[in-house]
Every structure is written in C-alpha cells, then in structure tokens.
Design brief:
about 180 residues, mainly alpha
C-alpha cells in the first residue's frame, strides 16, 4: 500500500472522499461512514473500519451495495463501464472462463435461480476463483435459508470491499485524483 495514497484519501475533501470510496462499495452510508472515520493511521485501520461498517449495514443499505455489482459471469452492470469499480470487477471475475460455454450458461441459469430464491444478486468474492468453483458455491448457497444467506452475502461484501479498499490505496493515482485535494 502506498502511504501517498493513504495520505491522499485522508486529505480529500469530504465529498471527494465519498466519491472515491463509492468505487469500493456503492452503499452511500458505507462511503459516508468511511469518509467520516478519516484520518486513517494505516490501510489496515481503514479495512478494519470498513468491515465494521459493512457488518452494521441495514438490509436496505446492503441492497444498495449489491446494486453496484454485476452478476457473476457478466462483465458489466449498473455503474460498470470504465470506472475503477468496473476494472476491479473484471479483475475479480477474471477466473470465470468466458470460453467455457457450459459453465457460462450454468452460471447464468444459477444466477436467475438465486435471484428468484433470495430476491437479490448472488454476491461472492470471486478473486482467484474459477467459474467452476463459483458455480459450485452458488449451487451450495441455494440450499441456505434466507436469513443465513443474507449473512453470507454480508461476509462476502466485507471481503470484496476490503480488497477494493486495498486496491484504492495501492493503485497509482488516476486523472483527477490529485486535483481533488485542495
């Protein structure tokens, strides 16, 4: 992690900090609480606070966070164009074999089954996992009761958000990053 990037985040004006943090998690309340918790002494301190905030998200806020993620096996979704979040999502899902039509079709069908059962997208920390692994996890999670599954989703969101926050603090500056510090 770059201490320059941590300093950058700590010194951003509140609105700019919220905007940068929304790349990590699209729940506005999470971004607000993370921005309000600055300055962070370390990236680890920011990740720890993130986990605590995700653990306390309301169901509605958790739904807002889910809205920022594409389905597993899809490369785009709401807010997923050329943004940092879109790039990270593509990296996270890079193990899903786009060329394996059988897995792709099974994931698409499984996503729909999951959404019918639970009323929201299947969220899983996909980093380092293959499409076959993600399909097996999806099928196993379809057996969960809704309350238990909601907790699994929260845990997966904590993992994804921690990875993205670490990336935000490690990524080289993007155009406009430095200019936002006034």
């Amino acid at each position: 992690m770059s201490s320059d990037r941590l300093t950058w985040l700590n010194e951003l004006p509140p609105q700019a900090a919220r905007q940068a943090l929304l790349e990590c998690c699209s729940a506005p309340g999470w971004a607000e609480d993370m921005a309000a918790g600055r300055p962070y002494a370390s990236a680890a301190a920011a990740v720890t606070r993130s986990g605590a905030i995700v653990a306390a998200l309301t169901d509605a806020e958790l739904g807002e966070a889910l809205a920022g993620h594409p389905r597993i096996g899809e490369r785009s979704g709401p807010g997923h164009g050329t943004s940092r979040a879109a790039r990270w999502s593509r990296q996270e899902q890079s193990g899903v074999e786009a060329g394996d039509r059988t897995i792709s079709e099974a994931l698409a069908e499984g996503n729909l089954d999951y959404e019918r059962r639970f009323g929201h997208i299947y969220l899983v920390c996909a980093s380092g996992r293959t499409g076959k692994e993600l399909l097996a996890v999806l099928r196993a999670r379809l057996q969960n009761d809704p309350d238990h599954e909601w907790q699994v989703v929260r845990t997966e969101l904590q993992k994804i958000t921690a990875l993205r926050l670490q990336r935000l603090l490690a990524d080289p500056a993007e155009p406009g990053d430095r200019a936002e510090v006034a």
